[in-house]
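EI: anyone free to look at a 226-residue chain?
SC: sure, send it
EI:
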Amino acid sequence: MDVIPALDLLGEDAVRLEQGDYDRVLFRQPLESFMSRLVATAPPLIHVVDLQGARDGALRPEVVERCRRAAQGTPLQVSGGIRSTGAAREALDAGAARVVVGTALWADDDALDRFVAAVGDQLVAALDIKDGRLGVRGWVDFSEVTLEDALERCRAAGVVRLHVTAIERDGTMRGPDLDLYETACASGIAVVAAGGVRNDEDVEALAQLGCEAAVMGVGYLKRLGL
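SC: here you go
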């Protein structure tokens, strides 16, 4: 199973938030220096989250391009502020290998189908979950769409990959919500798990559930002794 490091951006810097709270910044570092630390570990992919874009609802293609240059050829999975199929294509054109879309998928009954048609297997549907509901707009708000409904709609639309985050575990180093990922994997769609993943034991537990990959934030560098 792949282990994917996360790089979260706020303003121009790499940061780490606790439980997605913009007022609880655990650390801050220049983007290029933090990216270089990740690239040195030869990851299969780097998960980039533009927190400012997610909160403001506006993709920052110049940030995607900056990350692409700093990543030195390592593929990027990009999220944050992708609210239209045009923005998704813009992120891909700026250097993303895959785009993670959450809020915009549930904007109307046809939105999910439009994104699948426009982006295909480069689309990763974000299911950011707290108390069984989807977090939207950078987790500032919550949708009435439930996890079960979202999984069924993704399966029906032909989504090939999910990025599932346990919001309450994100940035906490408390371990992943295994019940959440068991439910997601039962959908038959490839699952990338995020939120609270700390170490090899957590990664193995997620692999046993059938997850395709795990995203690690705080735990990634600690796991490698960096």
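EI: Residues 10 and 52 are 5 Å apart (CA to CA).
SC: 👍
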